[in-house]
Amino acid sequence: FNWNNTHLDQTQDMQGFLDMLEGPVNPVRLFDWWRSAPKLLSGGSSPFSDDTYFDDGSGFTDGYEPLLIANAAQGTNVLTMEGLPVSTTCFLRGDLIGVGGYLYEVKIGGNSNSSGQAAVTVHPGLRVGAAIGDPVTLYRPTLAMRLASDSEAVISRAITHGLPFSLTFVEDIP
């Protein structure tokens, strides 16, 4: 995660946020800005009629809220879900989805059938089991992350705007 301090108020806000994390002590939920939704589902990428977006960069969503239609034990790599567009390639390798508060990468994409059901292979295997009816997060799925070290929480406290800096987060696995 790279941050460029262009405004003093942003620097102060970021320092307060990092202080709250107390180095690698407290987790924070993050999503991947570059892969915020599966490529073939718009999931927030459709602009308004004047080609503008919301302030956060998102637009309209297609309203897909898939649910699991089969139990999935811890360690399972295949997820079967419903509530997708019918007869469509819904997921590509590399797409990110969320289940049970964890983030998973699609390793083998899936096509939906005429009922809007699809199975995908994910990596890593499920961190915890999931049940029929559990939701699958398509848009901005998050996971708990921690700063990699105590030194990550240090920002130069110069009176002028701070210099750009990088933060390294690692997954918070219980």
Rg for CA atoms: 19 Å
Strand content: 25-35%
Give the CA-based shape.
elongated
Span of the ends, CA to CA: 22 Å
Order of helices and strands: EHEEEEEEEEEEEE
Number of helices: 1
Structural class: mainly beta
Task: Walk me through the topology.
Layout: E1 2-3, H1 8-21, E2 28-30, E3 67-68, E4 78-82, E5 89-91, E6 96-99, E7 102-108, E8 110-111, E9 118-123, E10 136-137, E11 143-147, E12 165-166, E13 169-171
Antiparallel strand pairs: 1-12, 2-11, 3-4, 4-9, 5-8, 6-7, 6-10, 7-9, 11-13
Description:
The protein is built from one helix and 13 strands, in the order E-H-E-E-E-E-E-E-E-E-E-E-E-E. The strands form four sheets. The protein has a six-stranded antiparallel beta sheet, with no helix packed on it. The two termini are about 20 Å apart. It has one helix at about 10-20, and strands at about 1-5, 30, 65-70, 80, 90, 95-100, 100-110, 110, 120-125, 135, 145, 165, 170. The relative contact order is 0.25. Strand 6 (about 95-100) and strand 7 (about 100-110) form a beta hairpin. With about 170 residues, it is mainly beta. Helix content is about 10%, strand content about 25%. Mean pLDDT is about 80; it is low at about 55-60.
